[in-house]
């Protein structure tokens, strides 16, 4: 029997509904049984894979703690397929710099260091089209949307697989031959700085679904 997935989207704050819509476009082709908005431990326990959306990483962590699911969330992301986009990437990371005063709670599951708001304020948001071999044989570049986005400034484990880098100069504070990392894969975790859910291109969602199925 073909495996099917129940995929959750953490729906405490941020751009969760856009991820739900993107996943639903794949239900007929990618073996998705159900897409669930996750707000409780019961809902978290019912899913096979999870997306933590963009939004405000500090707020998401605080709401999760107040709802009593933060510890369960930390356990989940260490065991099951999880994708963090933008704020979700920050939450998954082991370390974050340029955080708000007093720091913030992290899920400590992805061995990278991220720089919060690496690219500046809302007015500094941008899009860029890049070739993305990890998404398959399609030759059409993907349009990447960056909104108050973090970047991965340090990879702290050799098992972390770099997937996408920006061209040199984008968001960098010093000259480097390599552009900033904005997408990585590590065991069961996918972390991306950008917002694929804000485009009509569902290839990154398909990538995650297939990653979850293969796990």
Tell me what you see in this structure.
- This protein has 215 residues and is of the alpha/beta class.
- The protein has helices at 16-24, 41-45, 57-66, 70-79, 87-92, 203-214, and strands spanning 5-10, 32-38, 49-52, 82-85, 93-97, 110-115, 126-130, 142-146, 151-155, 161-165, 181-186, 189-192.
- The strands form 3 sheets. The protein has a 7-stranded mixed beta sheet, with helices on both faces.
- Strand 1, helix 1 and strand 2 (32-38) form a beta-alpha-beta unit.
- The protein is globular and about 45 Å long.
- The two termini are 16 Å apart.
- The mean pLDDT is 91.
Which properties best describe this structure?
29% strand; 3-stranded mixed beta sheet; alpha/beta; 215 residues; 7-stranded mixed beta sheet; single chain
């Amino acid at each position: 029997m073909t495996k099917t997935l129940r995929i959750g989207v953490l729906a405490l704050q941020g751009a969760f509904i856009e991820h739900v819509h993107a996943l639903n476009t794949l239900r007929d082709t990618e073996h998705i049984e159900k897409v669930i908005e996750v707000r409780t431990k019961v809902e978290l326990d019912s899913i096979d894979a999870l997306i933590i959306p963009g939004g405000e990483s500090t707020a998401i962590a605080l709401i999760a703690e107040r709802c009593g699911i933060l510890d369960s969330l930390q356990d989940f992301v260490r065991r099951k397929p999880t994708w963090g986009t933008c704020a979700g990437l920050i939450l998954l990371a082991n370390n974050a710099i340029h955080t708000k005063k007093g720091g913030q709670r992290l899920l400590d599951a992805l061995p990278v260091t991220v720089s919060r708001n690496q690219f500046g304020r809302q007015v500094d948001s941008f899009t860029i089209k890049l070739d993305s071999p990890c998404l398959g044989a399609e030759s059409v570049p993907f349009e990447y949307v960056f909104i108050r986005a973090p970047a991965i400034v340090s990879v702290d484990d050799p098992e972390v697989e770099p997937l996408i880098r920006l061209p040199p100069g984008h968001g960098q504070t010093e000259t480097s031959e390599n552009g900033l990392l904005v997408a990585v894969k590590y065991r069961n975790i996918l972390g991306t700085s950008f917002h694929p859910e804000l485009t009509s291109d569902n290839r990154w969602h398909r990538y995650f679904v297939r990653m979850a199925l293969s796990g």
